[in-house]
From TrEMBL:
Entries under InterPro entries matching the protein: Mem_transp_PIN-like
Keywords: Cell membrane, Membrane, Transmembrane, Transmembrane helix, Transport
GO biological process: transmembrane transport
Keyword Protein biosynthesis among record annotations: no
Organism whose genome encodes this protein: Micromonospora maris
Subcellular compartments: Membrane
Record keyword Endoplasmic reticulum present: no
Transmembrane segments: 29-51, 63-82, 94-113, 120-142, 162-179, 292-311
Membrane topology field: Multi-pass membrane protein
GO cellular component annotations of the record: membrane
Name of this chain's protein: Transporter
Length: 312
């Protein structure tokens, strides 16, 4: 199966989720319930198995470095450009940088990696990089701006791995790999079945969420106008600049063709939904985060297929 044809099931299942939500087959809370199932159960199982079965020596250091370079470049540009280009306040800059360069390695990353790359191994490394390095930096900045005295709640940042099932499962997977632990066959079989539900359920949930993904006016503060130009710049940074930079960095690091494909595809994933959650929690950048998630998620199904076709 060609790389482009690998996207056909992705488009079909996303369309099925959209249609099911539009026709009322999933109920009003269907998309949310499916999303929670993927986030709290299926996705942690898939990432845990991938990391626990991968020797620590198998971590793709150069590939992860190429991805990290693209993330740092785009997040940094977005962070600085938010104020210089669009006059955003200092408290909004971390969210602006996050919407530009923090990829959806979960809900969309799992099915894309499974279908196009044939494995979630590198995606699991991307998850670790984002949640253990990028997310804490952004949270520290948001904490500092939200506190009148500019203090940072270190305890809250340090407890993030325990409070997030994706991070916790990934860390446990790495620990099992390091200790060379073998799961009981019944547990391994159960987790394998559960992880198999991650990709299709995530795509159906994605399609369902696209039907009514814009929050109500009560959920998003009205004093955050987002212009078309601003949204276009964010979309270009996320879907074009980040994968292009990842590709250039991969070439400079002499990555093989499969490694280069994995790096570019992961870098080309859309803005993570966590950006809206972060913005909502700290009361900044909610509107720009929500619109970025919607637009980049919708367009990424085409841009990722184009990238796969070019690299294929």
């Amino acid at each position: 199966m060609s790389l482009v044809s690998a996207f056909v099931p992705i488009w079909i299942l996303t369309a099925v989720g959209y249609a099911a939500c539009r026709w009322g087959l999933l109920g009003e809370a269907g998309a949310s319930v499916l999303g929670r199932f993927v986030f709290h159960l299926a996705m942690p199982a898939a990432l845990f198995l991938a990391l626990s079965r991968m020797p620590l020596s198998g971590f793709a250091g150069r590939s992860l470095l190429a991805f990290g370079v693209s993330t740092a470049a785009v997040v940094g540009f977005g962070w600085v450009g938010a104020s210089r280009l669009f006059g955003r306040e200092p408290s909004e800059r971390p969210i602006w940088g996050m919407v530009a360069g923090y990829v959806n390695s979960a809900n969309l990353g799992i099915p894309i990696a499974t279908q196009v790359l044939g494995s979630v191994s590198f995606l699991a490394e991307v998850v670790l990089l984002q949640v253990l390095v990028v997310a804490p930096v952004i949270l520290i900045a948001l904490d500092r701006h939200s506190d009148p005295a500019g203090r940072v709640r270190i305890r809250r940042i340090a407890s993030l791995p325990v409070r997030n099932p994706v991070i916790l499962a990934s860390l446990l997977g790495v620990a099992c790999s390091a200790a060379d632990l073998q799961l009981p066959s019944a547990v391994d079989a159960s987790l394998t079945l559960l992880s198999g539900a991650a990709a299709p359920t995530a795509l159906v949930a994605l399609g369902a969420s696209l039907h009514h993904t814009v929050p109500s006016p009560a959920e998003v503060k009205p004093a955050e106008p987002v212009g078309v130009t601003e949204l276009a710049v964010i979309t270009a940074l996320k879907l074009v600049a980040q994968p292009v930079i990842a590709y250039a960095a991969g070439l400079a690091l002499h990555l093989s063709a499969p490694q280069l494909l994995a790096v570019v595809v992961c870098a080309g994933l859309p803005t993570a939904q966590n950006t809206f959650i972060f913005g909502q929690e700290y009361g900044v950048g909610e509107a720009v985060a929500n619109r970025a998630v919607v637009v980049t998620t919708t367009l990424s199904l085409a841009t990722l297929a184009a990238a796969a076709a070019l690299l294929g």
